[in-house]
Design brief:
The protein is α+β, with helices and mostly antiparallel strands. A hairpin with a 5-residue loop joins strand 1 and strand 2.
Length: about 130
């Protein structure tokens, strides 16, 4: 489930810690399973997901299409900020990356390679963004 709530917590000294937006993608009944486990437990679902990864919705979960729709208000807020650090799951990062690059189709979005444990700097430009 994706949360649009901007979290702020009070520190003991009275200051505020800004925890940003809580954003996750739910895999429903498959949450916590490996792809091999999903293929063995739900072969029909696994095949459906392979045919249309952008629109496929896990039972009780979300599709990439759902996540893109839920990210819209978060993206609008991100565009108003100057410097932002986003730490997130690969599905969320793929959606944000596709939005800011602007030239990614929905068929390609689920397959964007987002490396683990890596900092990617995106700088918005008039027609997309630069990447460092």
């Amino acid at each position: 489930m994706l949360s649009r709530i901007h979290n702020r917590k009070r520190k003991q000294d009275g200051g505020v810690v800004d925890e940003g937006f809580g954003v996750t993608r739910s895999s429903g009944v498959c949450d916590g399973m490996t792809y091999k486990e999903i293929e063995e437990a739900f072969p029909g679902d696994f095949a459906q997901r392979d045919r249309d990864k952008f629109n496929y919705r896990y039972s009780g979960g979300e599709s990439y299409r759902d996540v893109v729709a839920r990210l819209e208000p978060v993206i609008l807020q991100l565009e108003r900020e100057k410097n932002i650090l986003v730490i997130g799951h690969q599905a969320i990062l793929r959606c944000l990356y596709a939005y800011f690059h602007g030239n990614v189709t929905q068929d390609d979005l689920p397959y964007i390679k987002v490396p683990l444990h890596t900092i990617i700097k995106l700088t918005p430009t008039a027609y997309g963004c630069d990447e460092d």
